[in-house]
Amino acid sequence: MFSIHYLWIKKTFIPLVLFISYSSITSHKALANMELPIQYCSMSINSTLLSTDQVSLNFSLQNPYDKNMRLLIWYTPFEGFFSDLFIITNSDTGEQLNYQGPMVKRLQPQIEDYLSLSANEISSITLNLSLVYVFTQGNYQLQLKKNSFNFEEDNLTTFPLFCKTPFLEFNIK
Predict the structure, then answer these.
(1) Are residues 134 and 109 located together in one domain of the fold?
(2) Angle ∠(88,147,63) on CA atoms, nearest 5
């Protein structure tokens, strides 16, 4: 590993620093070539209980690694409604629904902010989207706003998980 540092000072003594780090370039190449986990998330809408005041979303996530991991639940469905997690669009009008729930500011994560998952374990949660979005009769599309999550090992090494779920389409009568 090597670094090139170049400092150039004009006559007005305004410094311009150019920093190129070989180690950061190689780490980006390694990440680009790394085999990332395939789809280990799923979402569905329970259509049997669908009404303007009951839109039940089922979300599941699997630990795809052969070791016990922790998931920071912030900005995931496992946290419940403490951030705007979804993009929900009324297909009839093209309008995006506004999130009506709380937004929180955070400090450092605490142990209770993590979900522990054994190797290959699946964890699921059901959320009533009507608690934080105002639905009317019509057709809707739903997708996750954030599609990547990070797992951590006990030694704090992080591993990515890309959650590329398709658009969900549903109709409220």
Answers:
(1) yes
(2) 125
